[in-house]
Amino acid sequence: MLKADKSLGIIFFPAFDWAISPTHPEREERLLYTQDQLREEGIFDIEGIDEYKPSVASVEDVERVHFCFPDVPSVATRSHMVSAGGAIRAAELVMSGEKERAFAMVRPPGHHAMKVVHGSRGFCNINIEAVMLEHIRARHGRKRVAIVDTDCHHGDGTQDVYWHDPDTLFISMHQDGRTLYPGSGFPEELGGPWARGRNLNIPLPPGTSDEGFLAVMQRVVMPILEDFGADLVINSAGQDNHFSDPITNMNLSAQGYARMNEMLAPDIAVLEGGYAIQGALPYVNLGLCLAMSGMDYSGVREPDFTPDSVHQEKRITEYIDRLCDVMPELYFNPPAFDGSEKAREGVISAGWFVRHKDIYYDVDNISEAQTEMVRECPDCRGTVRVETRSTNNPLCLGVEVPANACDACRDEGYRILEEAQLKGGFRYIQFINRRDDEVVRHGF
Amino acid sequence: MLLGIDVGGTHTDAVALEERGGCMETAASCKVPTDHDDLLGSVTAALREVLRDVDPARAVALNLSTTLSTNAIVEGKVEDVGVLVSAGPGIDPHLFMPCRHFYALDGYVDHRGNEVRSLRGGQVREAVEACRKDGVRVFAAVGKFSTRHPRHERVMRNALCAVDGDEPCEAADFVTMGHELGGTLNFPRRVATAYYNCAVWRVFNEFAEAVKRSLDDLGLGHVRVNVLKADGGTMPLAESRRMPVQSIFSGPAASVMGIVALCDIVHDSVILDIGGTTTDIAVFADGAPLVEREGIDIGSLPTLVRALKVRSIGMGGDSAISVLADEVRVGPNRLGPSACHGGERPTLTDALNWVGESEVGDVEASRRALRDYAASHTMPAEVLAGRAMEYASRTIHRETRALVDEINAKPVYTIHELLEGKQVVPRKIYLMGGPAESMRSPLFERFKLSVEVPSDYAVANAIGAALTRTTWDLELFADTERNVMFIPSLSYRENIPSNYGLEQARRDAVNQLSMHLDAMGVKLDKDEAQITHASSFNMVKGFDMVGRNIRVRCQVRPGVTHRMGRG
User: Fold this and answer.
1) Is A434 helix (H, G, I), strand (E, B) or coil?
2) pLDDT tens series, chain A, 444 aa
3) A296 and chain B: CB distance < 8 Å anywhere?
4) Cα pseudo-dihedral A277, A278, A280, A286, rounded to 10
5) Which among B259, B314, B316, B262 is positioned nearest to B283, based on CA atoms?
């Protein structure tokens, strides 16, 4: 019987009874052929590889990450809770030492879900990686974690959730935002004033193939990861960079995906997007499972693969080359926070960082206007205060006291809460004190 | 009258069951020692014995559970097999090579059943020639995703048989095509199963011939013969000659079906068959035995052979008592018979004799052995006996719990299943085997559940064999975009209209199942055919629905034709 080099737990949850709409890319059929392929390959018979049931994430798990308005059950369906629960199960397998690595092959995805949630954007409602990661941190302490997002779309949700967190390094490689949803993810988006260089975006031109991706891995991602010294590496394993994906324009193959995964050697991988459900997903997922378990993946090949599929134009190679020259510098020597009005990165005013955001939820057609504030604090990450209104909800307030909060920031959090309750003006208030694990929901 | 024979490791048990006044009763039963070198002799000896008091002419059926295929594999008495595979991309097929004559051919069928690359005639011919040159006469032809489209397996078969179509095989003695083994997706298991099916084909068929002849000699030429399978069902003898691998590991299944015949099981329950060297643990959910998710391992290779979920642990009446530091243990080894049967080392049976739970063999010998062994470990004998009994019940309890937990942890695939997830919670324990009666109260103490020991438990395995019904299962796969419906295990392929739906698929699956059983001479009550899985997925291209991908699995689940004592 075959034996895996690295033990691997697979949480396979295809949510065979959930879809956004019958013909939507995010539908029941999406992981059907992946399941067929993995079964037919006998992957679960390999010694060291086992399949596990997902857990179901709790409302508390979600509230640790998000301000959901009006509340968690309104924005996250059962399937979202199971999908996040699948990621949590993967993390538990690794943290408990039961498996060396884990792959949560779950849907629906989550990396477009931001700190504040009014609905669904980019097929995502809650950020399953973030829910997983904060679950880990609540149980196992503050870890230094790197999240590498290899989905073709910019992981703007994960970026937003961890914008101010210097302990979370977020690297997103994606098709250039000028050519694809969500239109963000440029190199100058480097993180909040106290977490500069912890958020890195590597936009790649349409037509980037195995060659380009692997160059970026080798020259940018790996040296940075080595320097950061993460306790845990998480891969947001979207698969829509595949040359056959119907909604993107990249030329990555299953071999390229597997090789990237092998280099990255993530402790936990979580499936994100990927909508070439017949021609790509079965092969990419097989490649990832084999790579994660340290097995030979050289025999994995898509049916419609030809050498032309992964051809990369010379000018693209040159462009990526130049990108690789400049990208590491943004991590090692990030430019200081520019708090001027012109830079539009937000301002620091009266001891608070303040920025305004307008967010559009494409799936649910919701527009949100948001003011995010973070208390400037030399002793901790600072209390977060978010005011938000959307076409779905009147003015709401979110307050978060961080896990490592100093007394002053904690007191400030309670003061804001009290004031908001007294003065009124907010339809819903979500308050979370991560330091002492207290949650207050007001207005329901 | 129904006859049942279970050829076991130590004994061959036989029963003749007769219906009297609406009640099924044991008309005759016997136990004879099993002769491993002459299984046919053991079968005929048991038959002669059991037929001494009953009229052979009244017998209508004989169900036979035999270790023949199992032994052939364990002892390596198998034939060389030529294995031809068409694997396509993925894990290197050579990693699953079950034998020397293994040829991986360049073909590729994808998960939908599309032929991406056809087999190359020259390469197939070369493989066939190489096997022939080495004198190989039986062959396995297996393709990846052949359960979606068996084309490559047919091409290989025709080349091996030197025929053009479905004509009888000319150039080989026997060919197993992978898709005939069932619709389950698992290429490595399909390879291993097809290999074993060929490897035991000749030895099983010679045995089947010999059994037929002996039955004629015994005046039983008219009876319908069925062979037991590991899933707790039977198959007609003719079918078993084509699928001998299915006859493997039927022993534990016979015992479990015996309990089903003897007791009226309705709840989630645990069956414990405590033998001489091992205890077999089986689990029932809602009164039905659970089967392995995919199939059992043969040798070290996982296969597609369906089997009841039975866990064997090294804990039986003859398991030796040992003392390690201060801890008293029982098993997992057997170091000869119990002291009460002339052995030296005290065993679980001896401990049960001491505490007064049983009076087996020479009780005084049990006491002597325990006293001596306890003295050598400076421990009072009653403490040794008490702790041994406790250790045994604790071990059985722990292993049972582990098995139930494992069953409850099995992955599910829909939100509904996950949230409504059925958990198996045993409410009752059924005990059988030698020390059953004497372990009743220690196990009750441990489990705190009602413990039942059926009256006829000594030959329950043969009763189970006699009364178990024919089981069969099939998977139907339909793809309305390609207008194809395919049932791999029947090699049945039909063109379907684009509006073919899940309801039709369910109907077709049940109809095909009963037609097939009918052709084998087995009558099927429509209610006995059970749909265990039915799903239909819309297939979308761009933003248009282009068809449905339908999967239906249908089975006759294991069960008994009659219950003992109740007709």
Assistant:
1) coil
2) 789 999 999 998 888 888 888 888 888 889 999 999 999 999 999 999 999 989 999 999 999 999 999 999 999 998 999 999 999 999 999 999 999 999 999 999 999 999 999 999 999 999 999 999 999 999 999 899 999 999 999 999 999 999 999 999 999 999 999 999 999 999 999 999 999 999 999 999 999 999 999 999 999 999 999 999 999 999 999 999 999 999 999 999 999 999 999 999 999 999 999 999 999 999 999 999 999 999 999 999 999 999 999 999 999 999 999 999 999 999 999 999 988 878 788 999 999 999 999 999 999 999 999 999 999 999 999 999 999 999 999 999 999 999 999 999 999 999 999 999 999 899 999 999 999 999 999 886
3) yes
4) 100
5) B259
Neighbour-count burial for B367-379, b at 16+ CB within 10 Å, e otherwise: bbbbbebbeeeee
pTM given for the model: 0.90
Asked if the bond preceding B89 is cis, omega within 30° of 0, the reply is no
- Assess A290–B contact: CB distance below 8 Å, yes or no: yes
Nearest chain B Cα to A22, which residue? B538
| Whole-angstrom distance, CA of residue A111 vs CA of residue A182 | 11
Q: Is A131 domain-assigned? A: yes
B116, B406, B415, B538, best to mutate vs chain A, most A CBs in 10 Å: B415
Active site residues of A: 112
Which domain-ending residue is among A297, A332, A367?
A332
The dihedral of CA B70, B75, B81, B85: what is its sign? positive
Whether residue A260 sits in one domain with residue A141:
yes
Read off the DSSP letter of residue B168.
P
Chain A residues within 8 A of B294 when measuring between CB atoms: 45
Do the chains contact at B538 and A51, CB–CB below 8 Å? no
Q: Are strands B472-479 and B484-487 parallel, antiparallel or unpaired?
A: antiparallel
> Which residues of B fall within a CB distance of 8 Å from A253?
none
Interface test with A, best of B305, B413, B535 (most A CBs within 10 A): B413
CB pairs under 8 A between A and B: 115
Using a CB-CB cut-off of 8 Å, the residues of chain A touching B114 are 303
Structure tokens at B104: 């991986």
Q: Is A12 in CB contact (< 8 Å) with chain B?
A: yes
- Identify the H or E element spanning A93: helix A78-95
**Min Cα–Cα distance to chain B from A167, Å:** 34
Nearest neighbour of A51 by CB, restricted to B89, B411, B538: B411
Using alpha carbons, list the distances in angstroms from residue B321 to A140, B311, B328, B351.
44, 22, 7, 9
Q: A198 and A66: one domain?
A: yes
The C-alpha of B69 sits at a distance from chain A's nearest C-alpha, in angstroms, of 21
Range of the domain at A31: 3-332
Coarse DSSP helix, strand, coil percentages of chain B, rounded to the nearest 5 percent: 35, 30, 35
- The contacts found for B25-29 with CB under 8 angstroms, 24 or more apart, are B25/B564, B25/B565, B26/B456, B26/B459, B26/B463, B26/B564, B27/B1, B27/B53, B27/B54, B28/B52, B28/B53, B28/B54, B29/B459, B29/B462
Give the mutation candidate from B91, B293, B298 for the A interface (greatest A CB count, under 10 A): B91
A42 to B91: CB separation less than 8 angstroms, yes or no = yes
Co-location of A152 and A244 in the same domain: yes
A323 lies in the same domain as A414: no
A183 and A108 in one domain?
yes
When divided into structural domains, chain A yields a total of 2
Inter-chain CB proximity B189 and A56 less than 8 Å: no
Chain A, 336 to 395: residues with Cβ < 8 Å from chain B are none
> Which SS3 state, helix, strand or coil, does residue B69 take?
helix
Please state, in angstroms and as integers, the Cα–Cα distance from residue B323 to each residue in A139, B339, B367, following that order: 41, 17, 17
Å between B97 CA and nearest CA of chain A = 10
